[in-house]
Amino acid sequence: xxxxxxxxxxxxxxxxxxxxxxxxxxxxxxxxxxxxxxxxxxxxxxxxxxxxxxxxxxxxxxxxxxxxxxxxxxxxxxxxxxxxxxxxxxxxxxxxxxxxxxxxxxxxxxxxxxxxxxxxxxxxxxxxxxxxxxxxxxxxxxxxxxxxxxxxxxxxxxxxxxxxxxxxxxxxxxxxxxxxxxxxxxxxxxxxxxxxxxxxxxxxxxxxxxxxxxxxxxxxxxxxxxxxxxxxxxxxxxxxxxxxxxxxxxxxx
Length: 253
Hints:
By secondary structure, the protein is α/β, with parallel strands linked by helices. It has 8 helices and 7 strands, in the order βαβαβαβαβαβαααβ. It has a 7-stranded parallel beta sheet with strand order 3-2-1-4-5-6-7, sandwiched between helices. β4, α4 and β5 form a beta-alpha-beta unit. α1 runs parallel beside α2, α3 packs parallel to α4 and α4 packs parallel to α5. The longest helix is centred in the middle third of the chain and has 29 residues. The radius of gyration is 17 Å and the shape is globular.
């Protein structure tokens, strides 16, 4: 698997799955464009990627809920590289609560980042992806298809993202552009601390989830990154419109 001369744009690349994905693609010789809101973290990940094969990523600090930031991201990418081969829509936020306690602001927050920003960025990238016969990989969640009562706004946003994946895969297939999603189960990243959980609460959550998961393990970020790269590679050139679970079997329960 090789991404030599391929331009790979990754959102939410400053931490978690996005950072692991950036590092994985750097080992495959990709020309990286990394974006995120946390400038210091983004620089650290970019430096790590650069050390892998000596290729310096383009970094763009951006809040993808801001339309101007999205437009600037695409402009900088094209100005620097002249094309986009792979778009990884990874940036996302968690929003906790059910219908009794998650207000409409929580819904708006989840949909703004997890769906609207993806729609906008994808819309701007599609002409370039058609030109390159490229592909899109969306980072969704097993919770897009598995009901629970703890994070309703997040679940809804990921269900929408899955259907977005299927719909645009059908639309873009005649143009030679593939679209898929990866749907992780529980992955231990900072997204949980960002919604206010303490380290002890996160560890308790991990213990409970591992106990209920058929394979008795949580998903590691490097596993998700490897699946994203596979879906973006020529090894999956007949795969489009798929929402691939990587969850230790949790969706089976």
